[in-house]
Amino acid sequence: MVEIVISGFAALRGSTGPRKFCIERWGEFSKLPRAHTCFNRLDLPLYRTYEELLEKLTFAVEESETFAMQ
């Protein structure tokens, strides 16, 4: 994690070498986002508003014990 802070997203690596961070559209707008930390990927539904995105993403990060595990 420290390397990411120092080097930015360009320093992200996967099991086969450098792997860019990406955001994929996924699921219904009622779903929470999901993370694939091994693949540096965040799956986000197409939320109806910015406020809804912020609410769901904040909830997933702060309240879910498994958000970063996959």
From TrEMBL:
One family name in Pfam for this protein: HECT
Gene Ontology biological-process annotations: protein ubiquitination; regulation of dendrite morphogenesis; ubiquitin-dependent protein catabolic process
Entry annotation: catalytic residues: C38 (glycyl thioester intermediate)
EC number: 2.3.2.26
Single GO molecular function: ubiquitin protein ligase activity
GO cellular component, as recorded: cytoplasm
Enzyme class: transferase
Domain annotation HECT: ranges: 1-70
InterPro entries: E3_ubiq-protein_ligase (IPR050409), HECT_dom (IPR000569), Hect_E3_ubiquitin_ligase (IPR035983)
Protein name: HECT-type E3 ubiquitin transferase
Catalytic activity annotation: S-ubiquitinyl-[E2 ubiquitin-conjugating enzyme]-L-cysteine + [acceptor protein]-L-lysine = [E2 ubiquitin-conjugating enzyme]-L-cysteine + N(6)-ubiquitinyl-[acceptor protein]-L-lysine
Keywords linked to the UniProt accession: Transferase, Ubl conjugation pathway
Pathway assigned to this chain's UniProt record: Protein modification; protein ubiquitination
